[in-house]
Design brief:
2 domains, disordered C terminus, 13 helices, binds protoporphyrin IX containing FE, 3 helical TM bundles of succinate and fumarate reductases, 72% helix
């Protein structure tokens, strides 16, 4: 039987290790990005104004004189994150159980070993696979709508564009995937190891669980708030949030609510009127006489009204005495008496 000669002079390639390093690096950046992203999105819990402020700041609006932002800045950020997302996914599929056989082996080992970190790795694969699809949809929408991020437009996307189921599943996937990933990075590269590795592993696991619960909680609450705002805004879906208008309305409401501090002259006048009641009667009389001409006319008209009715009554009386009328009900007298017919 021919002996198989393994040429161990072939230098083992460092590429897989480098790919692992690249996967860890892109995972670290995306994981930390997701924590920041979720805190920024959760600013909606502090009100529409806060979310709008965050969205405008992300557009670098503080750099422009007009306060208008630069959607191209968001476009660039999404483009970078989307590229990292795709590179990370491409590096991740190397570790996926790609055949059914491989999948059953992993499942049986998990059942046999009951090793929590192995189970965590399996759920990272499942959530990563789901994010291939749902994360790409979200990122593509953000890439093509960089200037359409505000309290109303985001809520309209969640409610009127029915994105909420996608966001809900994506939220669970990204928070589970991201926090497991950061925990495994610490385990893999020995970060925060401390003197007692077993103790620090337990501690890191506790931090991981709490971070998952925290980000799932604020993410679901934020999604609920987006949903409610979107529902209320559904009749005006697509109408952007106009913070200047809101500020003006709020300012108007505030001024209306506050007792208007009277001008110094007005205060003096009010005071004067309080002082001399006698004067007021005088003022009232003058006023009566200064009654506006219209009122005078109206007064006369009403006064005139009885006269007219008296006249009409007189005319009627005169008609009744001779009692003549032709076929059309027009009084004869009149008929005869008009000068032009003669
Ligand atoms: C720079 C890239 C990104 C930007 C600018 C961005 C922006 C946003 C914005 C504005 C929202 C609010 C809803 C909306 O307007 O439609 C949102 C929600 C969300 N994003 Fe992103 N996103 C980015 C990347 C990602 C990535 C890579 C993931 C995960 C793979 C992700 C997962 C989510 C989830 C789960 C929500 C729902 C949050 C909630 O629970 O309310 N995002 N994102």
């Amino acid at each position: 039987m021919e002996r198989l000669i393994v040429d161990d002079r072939i230098k083992k390639s460092r590429t897989p290790a480098r790919l692992d390093l690249a996967q860890s690096g892109t995972g670290l950046v995306l994981g930390l990005f997701m924590w920041v992203h979720m805190l920024l999105v959760a600013s909606i819990l502090l009100g529409k104004g806060s979310f709008n402020f965050v969205a405008r700041t992300m557009e670098l609006s503080f750099l422009s004189d007009t306060g208008h932002g630069y959607p191209s800045a968001v476009f660039m950020a999404v483009f970078c994150v989307f590229s990292l997302f795709i590179i990370h996914a491409a590096l991740g599929v190397r570790k996926f159980p790609i055949s059914w056989k491989q999948h059953t082996i992993i499942r049986s080992q998990m059942g046999m070993m009951k090793h929590s970190d192995t189970n965590l790795w399996y759920w990272q694969v499942v959530t990563g696979f789901i994010m291939f699809f749902l994360g790409s949809v979200h990122l593509f929408i953000m890439l093509t709508n960089p200037g359409r991020i505000d309290p109303y437009l985001s809520s309209d996307r969640v409610f009127s564009a029915s994105m909420w189921p996608l966001y809900l599943i994506l939220l669970v996937c990204v928070e589970v995937h991201g926090t497991i990933g950061l925990y495994r990075l610490c385990m893999k590269w020995g970060w925060f190891g401390g003197k007692d590795p077993v103790k620090s592993r337990e501690k890191l696991k506790m931090i991981k669980n709490r971070a998952t619960i925290f980000f799932l909680a604020i993410g679901s609450l934020a999604l609920l708030v987006f949903f409610i705002i979107g529902w209320r805004h559904s009749d005006r879906a697509g109408e952007p949030y106009n913070h200047r208008l809101v500020e003006r309305v709020e300012a108007a409401v505030i001024t209306e609510a506050e007792p208007v501090a009277a001008e110094p002259e007005e205060a003096a006048e009010a005071e004067a009127s309080e002082e001399a009641p006698g004067e007021t009667e005088e003022a009232a009389e003058v006023e009566a006489s200064e009654e506006s001409p219209v009122e005078a006319v109206e007064a006369t008209e009403t006064e005139a009204a009885p006269l007219e009715t008296a006249e009409a009554a007189a005319a009627e009386a005169s008609e009744e005495t001779p009692a003549h009328s032709d076929a059309h009900g027009e009084p004869e007298a009149n008929h005869h008496t008009t000068p032009d017919e003669e």
